[in-house]
C-alpha cells in the first residue's frame, strides 16, 4: 500500500471519526462499530492487498500502538471521574464499593471462567488457558465511552447544586469507568503468572516470588509513583508560587500528556505497573483542584488523542479481519468468546455486586437493574490486544494464531453487542432514575 493511499484512507477515516459520534448519538450504532466496518471495507480495496497485517509478524508494533492507546484512555478516564477517593475516609472507600467488588471478585472469577473454557472446551494447555483468561478478563477504557462518565464537571460551567442534567457520575457509569481504569493494570500479575508457567520449572519459590513481586510489589510501586507524580504536578499546576509555573492559570493543557508519559516511564523504570501509575496520577491530578476549568481543558486534549489512536487501532483491526485475521477461528473460539461475553462476565459481575451488597440508597449502592447493567457491560477491546501482543513478544505461545483469532473475535463480538445495547439500555436506566428522583 502506497504512502498516498495511507494518507487518503486516514484522511477519510478521520473525517468520519469526527462526524460519527454526532450521527450515532441517538441510534443503536456506536462509533467503534462503524469504524470496524469501515476498516473491513478498506481491507477489501485492491490497494490494501499488499499490506502485511499478520499479527505474528508485528508483535512489537502492536504492543506499542495498543499500549499507548490504553495509556491515553487511562489518563482520560482518570481525569473524568468526579467521585473523590479520600484514602483517610472509610466512608469514601465505601462509595467505591462496586469498583472494589468488580476488581477483587469479578475479575478473578472471569479469569478463572475463561481459563476453564480454554482448557475444557478448547483443549489448551493450562498455562495457555490461564493466559487467555488474563488477556480477556480486563474491561476496556478505550471502547466503552457509551457506558462511562463523560467530561469532568467544572465550576465555570456546571452548577454543583444542580443535579438535573449532570448524572454522568451515576453509580453505573462510575463503576464501569473506574473498573476499566484499574483492571488493566491488575490483570498484569496473571499475564506474568501465565508466562512464568510457560517458561517451565515453576516451583513454590517461584509462587512466593510471584505473589511478593508481581502481585504486591509491582502494584504498590505503580500506585506510589502515580500518587507522587500526580501530587507534585497538581501542586505545580494549581498552587505554584510563580505565575509562570502555574499552568492552570496559563491554560496549557499539554500537562496531561506530560503527566501520562512521566508516570508511565517512571513506574516502568522502577519495576511498577505503568498502567496503574497513569490512572492513579490522573486521579490525583484531578483531585488537586477538583472544579477548575483546567481539568476540562486537559481532558479535552487527551480525549482528542484517544479518538485518533482508537481510529487507528479499529481501522487496522477491521482491515486485518478481511485479510485473514479470523482464519484460525473455529467453534472452540466462538464458544469461548460468546461464553465470556454472555455468561462468564455477567455471572461473575452479578456475584461480585449482589452478594452482601451495599444498600442502594447509599453512594456506591446499586439496585438489581443497575447490578445487571454493570455486570453485562464489561466491554472487551484494545487492552486485550495489548496483553496478547505483550505475551507473544516475551514467550513462545502454543496455538498463537488461534489465540489471535479468538481474541479479535471476542473484541468484535463485544463491540457489536455492547455497541447495539448500550445506548437504549443506558437511556432506559437514566429515565428510570429520573422518575425515581422526581418521586423522591
Detailed description of the structure:
The protein has a single domain, classed as Na+/H+ antiporter like fold, CATH 1.20.1530.20. The chain is mainly alpha-helical and 440 residues long. The protein is globular and about 60 Å long. The protein has helices spanning 3-23, 31-43, 59-80, 90-95, 97-120, 126-136, 171-186, 188-199, 204-239, 247-250, 255-270, 274-288, 293-325, 331-354, 368-376, 382-394, 400-439. It contains 17 helices and no strands. It starts with a helix and ends with a helix.
Concise overview:
This protein has 440 residues and is an all-alpha fold.
Which regions have little confidence, pLDDT < 50, spanning 5+ residues?
160-168
Overall geometry comes to globular
Question: Gap between N and C termini, in Å?
Answer: 61 Å
Content-based structural category: mainly alpha
CATH class membership: Mainly Alpha
**Share of helix, binned:** over 70%
Please tally the helical runs, counting DSSP H or I stretches of 4 or more residues: 17
Number of domains: 1
- The total of beta strands comes to 0
Strand content: under 5%
Task: Give the biggest beta sheet.
Answer: none
State the order of secondary-structure elements, H for helix, E for strand.
HHHHHHHHHHHHHHHHH
The mean pLDDT is 87
CATH architecture: Up-down Bundle
- Round the Cα radius of gyration to an integer and report it: 21 Å
Determine the CATH topology: Na+/H+ antiporter like fold
